[in-house]
Amino acid sequence: MPSNLERMIELAGETFAAHNDPDQLNVDEEIMEQLQRIHPATISQHVEGDGPVCWILLIPTTTDIMNQFINGEISETELLNKTPLDEKYDALYLCSCLVLPEFRRKGLATRIIYDAIKSIRDYHPIKTIFVWNFSNEGALFADKIAEHEGLPLLKREKRKT
User: Fold this and answer.
1) Which residues of the chain fall short of a pLDDT of 50?
2) Which residues, 6 or more positions from 121, have their beta carbon under 8 angstroms from its beta carbon?
3) Is 16 helix (H, G, I), strand (E, B) or coil?
4) Cα angle vertex 101, ends 23, 112, to 5°?
5) What's the CA dihedral at 11, 67, 110, 81 to 10 degrees?
6) What is the pLDDT of residues 80-104, one digit of tens each?
């Protein structure tokens, strides 16, 4: 039986297919280090047994970079690479949330993301949340998060395939 880590990697591939889409961030060790330099809460997870069962990825950035992304002018990779280090960020990209099927609807993702957002907002004056939805569940979750945080939610339209 595959480990939780192997299953999460497979779920990410099925959900996002980032290897086949140059506009998406293809998360590897280098990207994870870059995210951690922006803020430690950009990557959050819940581990049970032999690995993670829930992953959350957030990218705090500036309003200007957010607008470029929302308007389709830059990719996720460019969003991350353009985000300056050691600045005050006022926009937060809800990049991804993955939960193994048997751990869904237990509040794990909600708890983890709210804790991560609180940690980021302790240091940055976040005024807007933005998202690029890949599923109906993700869209509903983003709406719930924005409402909980009392912030407007901007959406990049999913590219037509």
Assistant:
1) 160-161
2) 149
3) helix
4) 70
5) 60
6) 999 999 899 999 999 989 888 899 8
